[in-house]
Amino acid sequence: MCLEALAFYPRGEFLTGTLLITLFIFSDNVDGVMARLSGRQGVWGAFLDSTLDRVGDAAIFGGLVLWFAGPGANWLMAGLALACLILGMVVSYAKARAEGLGMTCNVGIAERADRLFAVLLATGLVGLGLPLWVLTVVLALLSVASFITVIQRMATVHTQAMAALRADGAGTAGDSGPTET
Which residues are catalytic? Predict the structure, then answer.
């Protein structure tokens, strides 16, 4: 998925890139199903799959940023694609961090599959000849939906952290532990 997105999108070849990315996504889904059916899933496989999913997502939106900041010369579109890239990473990070702290964070209106479906459909349709405003609207909506999802996840974790703090009484709940730099 990364190679396809970074090979075709920065050249403005949206249809070819989208078709190849879609084929890769189907094969990526098959390997997860096969691992579950064979009983050979494990912690390493789950970690690797999630990490590579983030790389693939970044490549898709990054490829669009490269096109629109370069030959496509459209700063609005470059900014919207960059916002989708950043907010999509924060959506995923918020859930992972919450789970790392022992909380759940399965909320939000912009899940990964929804974001991928929307951007790939719109990009492919623009590659088929639909006007660019179709992709503009989709990227704008994805940016807003991703931002809302981040807020929803923050609110959910805050509620859980405060409930744990009240239940604990000692004030240890909500301790974030080491911070990242």
Answer: 53
Task: From 87, 83, 89, select the one nearest 68 (Cα to Cα).
Answer: 83
Which tens digit of pLDDT belongs to each residue from 158-169? Answer: 999 999 999 988
Rounded Cα gap, residues 101 and 112, in angstroms: 21
**Per-residue tokens: 59:** 């490549």
Coil, helix or strand for 173? coil
Token digits of residue 42: 């494990």
- Domains with residue ranges and CATH for the chain: 2-168 (1.20.120.1760)
SS3 content of the chain, % helix, strand, coil (to 5): 80, 0, 20
Q: How confident is the model at residue 125 (pLDDT cuts 50, 70, 90)?
A: very high
Which one has a higher pLDDT value, 178 or 64? 64
pLDDT one-digit tens code per residue, 44-57: 888 888 888 899 99
Tokens of 132: 């660019």
One DSSP character per residue, 61-103 reads HHHHHHHHHTTT--HHHHHHHHHHHHHHHHHHHHHHHHHHTT-
